[in-house]
Amino acid sequence: MxxxxxxxxxxxxxxxxxxxxxxxxxxxxxxxxxxxVLERSAEHYPQILESLARRQAALGRELTAAGAxxxxxxxxxxxxxxxxxxxxxxxxxxxxxxxxxxxxxFGSYRVSQGTFPxxxxxxxTNEGGEFKIGAFFSLLRDRExxxxxxxxxxxxxxxxxxxxxxxxxxxxxxxxxxxxxxxWVAEGHKLQIFQSLLDxxxxxxxxxxxxxxxxxxxxxxxxxxxxxxxxxxIFTRQAERDFAAAxxxxxxxxxxxxxxxxxxxxxxxxxxxxxDGIIPRWAVVDQMTIPDILSVRPDLGVLQAGLxxxxxxxxxxxxxxxxxxxxxxxxxxxxxxxxxxxxxxxPAEGAVGLRFSMPLQxxxxxxxxxxxxxxxxxxxxxxxxxxxxVAIEIQTILIDLKTATDLLKLAALDVSQADTMxxxxxxxxxQGASDFFLVNLREETAADARIRDIDAELRAQLSCADxxxxxxxxxxLGIP
Length: 480
Description:
The chain is α+β, with helices and mostly antiparallel strands. The chain has helices at about 1-15, 35-45, 45-65, 145-215, 220-250, 280, 290-295, 300-320, 365-430, 435-470; strands at about 70-80, 90-95, 105-115, 130-140, 325-335, 350-355.
């Protein structure tokens, strides 16, 4: 029985030597994978859902601005109820604003009957009524931009910003979710290592008690091992605390189909911290250039859209400095028999008109120009700083990735060497050729090496997650 328990404790401690293929075996289905966490957080994390709602609101505002160019139908009627005149008119009109030249076109139909006073002579039509079409164009002010076209452009840019902000939110959340997952994996395996160390000491205590009873060892060995058990209990308890904290943090991203937080159990941990596939991904890092990365960064896209909005505000303000010169064109034709208005209504008619106005003081427009230009300058400086920060961020991540590669190799070598020394010392101790202090030291040194190996793997995974977020790798972060 003693030998069986001893072998079981050693098996627990050595479980972390299993090859990575073991983590991809039959039982892999029940283990929580990073892809599952990313999928759940992408679908149910409240901050992402909030950003999607804000994008929908921005699209609604864009649709509202487009409504300024909808066709508008109107009708009017008038009728003299009493007095000398008995005239009545019915007028229907359809009009629409145009984007080119700040234009507006309309078409109308009007019909009248009865008599009208001379000051209302224009109300007369032939018996079939009058058809009229017309157009208005701005030749100076409002030629290139006006309030309607500015609102349309501004809301379109705001919608683009909302799209980019959704992506920014998704990148931030998925990056945090991936980091939380790997911290949970690391803390879970650290706990297993400390628990296996404690189990090993407990198994050894049973054997020592029997050896002391037989007189094969001094009683002081029991006290020394109990001290060792106490120390390992402390380490295990601290590891349980760290694992519980990592578990709670992961639950923030790992959610049910209803969006509720779910704390993954320890039984869903992958058997070993699998790093397969991470190194090959790094091979493409050096092929990417900073301009390539800057071109896809959504935070820079948000600033660029903001700069375009400031430029549009500046153009609208400069439009206010121009004098107004509007051109109007109208053509009309009455149909049907000549009515009481006389023959002057019968032939087709055409008219052209010009209207000119100019503000004598332009302080409002100048103030808006200064404001828009200052905003554009501020955004350009923000963009410049962010580009510099992104360049430094990428360089730092590349350094971290290279260092992580080296540390992983060194950590694996450290584990191999520590395991060799531990196994040899345990054999010597079983043969009576080693003392209790040395065998405990070798075991804890081997456990420390495994902890350092897990930390190295964690740093590598976090650096890889940083790289995915910095280079906007949506596939790696599970962003649809």
